[in-house]
Amino acid sequence: MKNTLYKLVIGLAIFSISTPVIAQMKLGYIQSERIRTEFEDFKEAEAELQLEYRKVQFEFDQMIASIDSLKQEYEVKRLMALDKGESIRREIENGERQIQAFQAEKVGPQGEIMRKQAQMEYEILGKVKKAVDKVAIDGGYDFIFDGSVSLLYFKPKYDLTDDVLHELKNLESSK
Q1: pLDDT value for 170
Q2: Cβ–Cβ contacts within 10 Å for residue 85, how many?
């Protein structure tokens, strides 16, 4: 009983000391998904990646068409018993290996497009971080959370997304 009372007194003392500290903290949040859709750099990066992907897709489609043509030629020769079509069959196998290598090189997890996307996002997120830091420092915020990731509820008055978007525009115009 004495031990429980002691713990209760200590707990109340800690709570009473920490409550004013928590009450003095300044918190805010941003909606990163909104920044992603409204910040022009994200839109430009997305358009550039889509263009790159379409180029790769076009090249891939040409490779597939070439293999399909070889397969048709192989079937015709095989059915007509003109020859066994071994050279064509080897060409088809080589072409299929090239297609697989092409896919891995261009759009695979370690492919060119994924690396380019990661690099672009890294650069853009660096700008966003810089803008968030400036808003936090200028506004005297202790914490700014990403509401798109983990917040279930927050009052709209603590939303700093517009401030960050404004700061991003300022950073772009100062270049």
Answers
A1: 87
A2: 20
**Closest Cα partner for 107 from 65, 41, 55, 45?**
55
Residue 107 has pLDDT above 90, yes or no: no
Is 131:6 a contact under the CB 8 Å cutoff? Answer: no
Q: Is the pLDDT of residue 163 over 70?
A: yes
Residue 78 has a pLDDT of 72
Domain 25-173 has CATH 3.10.129.10: no
Half-sphere exposure of 87 (CA within 13 A, CB side): 3
- Average pLDDT over every residue of 49-55: 93
Number of residues assigned to the chain? 175
Q: 3-state DSSP call for residue 28?
A: strand
Each domain of the chain, given as residue ranges in start order, spans 25-173
Q: Which residue type is seen at 1?
A: M
Other residues' Cβ atoms within 10 Å of the Cβ of residue 128: 22
